[in-house]
Amino acid sequence: MDVFTYKGREIVVLKGDITEVEADAIVNAANKYLKHGGGVAAAIVRKGGDIIQKESNKIIAEYGPLEVGEAVATTAGNLKAKKVIHTVGPVYGEGDERNKLIKAVYNSMRLADSMGFESIAFPAISTGIYRVPVGLAAEAITDGIQIFIDENPDTSIKKVLLVLYTTSIFDVFRSVCKKKFG
Ligand code: AR6
To answer: What CATH number should be reported for the domain holding residue 83?
Structure first.
């Protein structure tokens, strides 16, 4: 685990399972339809309970599919977190992946901030089933965090966790954070 600070906010990079993390909000790498069938999304529903999928279905029924970069919140069910924030990352090859990832992170933090949350945990959005190269994703996700803090100096968010599931992805995020925040 590595801890960095940026403008008085803690940025924690750790290898682990996001469903086990202590944070007010954990972020899910979702799809536009909030059908949590695979990857980190399936792990979140498996551990948090089907109530997360049910609330997700309600959101889709009411508002229609999400856009890439949008973020919405549901209950966290049995998880330690207060809420799950679902955001949609880009699929590699669709174009503008960097800005879409920045937007997904920014909108997730904005939603957490609107609920007065002090901590938020992100997985490596888009680096699994959506195949975005890890280096590109790490640069964009950390840029999103940095831009949000720059533009929202009074945010309630004191701590941002980056929870990486594999050693190789953890190593890339750690070196990008060292360069940017170290
Ligand atoms: N904790 C933290 N990270 C995890 C965990 C976990 N428990 N499990 C997997 N990862 P993915 P995407 C990592 O595929 O690429 C879903 O089906 C994994 O190693 O979950 O944005 C959605 O419903 C990878 O680095 O998300 C969408 O359809 C990262 O999480 C689609 O996949 C993201 O991998 C979204 O694809």
So the answer is: 3.40.220.10
Give the residue numbers spanning the domain of 162: 2-181
Counting from 1 in the atom list of ligand 1, the atom nearest the Cα of 169 is: 25
Q: How far apart are CA 20 and CA 23, in angstroms?
A: 9
Ligand 1 near 79 CB (within 6 A): no
Q: How many domains does the chain have?
A: 1
Ligand 1 lined by 170 (C-beta under 6 Å): no
Q: How many residues are listed for the chain in this entry?
A: 182
Indicate the DSSP class of residue 20: G
To test the pocket of ligand 1, the residue of 129, 161, 167 to mutate (highest count of ligand atoms within 8 Å of its CB) is 129
pTM: 0.98
pLDDT tens for each residue of 8-46: 999 999 999 999 999 999 999 999 999 999 999 999 999
At 135-144, the pLDDT tens digits run 999 999 999 9
**What are the percentages of helix, strand and coil residues in the chain, rounded to 5?**
40, 20, 35
